[in-house]
Amino acid sequence: VNQKTYPMANILPFNSEEGKLSVGYRKLKVLKNNLISSRGEELIGHEFHRWKITGIKQKDHKKVLYNNALFPSWNMSGWDINSKKEGWCNDKFHASWIHLHWPSSKNIINNWINSLQ
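User: That's the sequence. What structure does it adopt?
Assistant: Structure tokens below.
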């Protein structure tokens, strides 16, 4: 682990750095209506990466992207992790470490298609 931080194109309000391998299936509970999912919806996904979030920029915590504030996508739980908020989104943007299992939601494809119109 080289401890070098990366600004992630300076789009999101944090940096990242290489960390330990985070892998496993995750249960997700959507926190707020967004680009691909609806509040309260439950999804399943898979996490597989070696990156961790560092240096959340407090002044940018409510960073605006496409004229809308960003907020956490969902509460995530699963094997070998404590329940935590994960992802960043608004009604025009979605970013997450989770590889979603789209068949876990009957609405995700329709929400995504509708967001393109």
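Residues 108-115 form the longest helix (8 residues).
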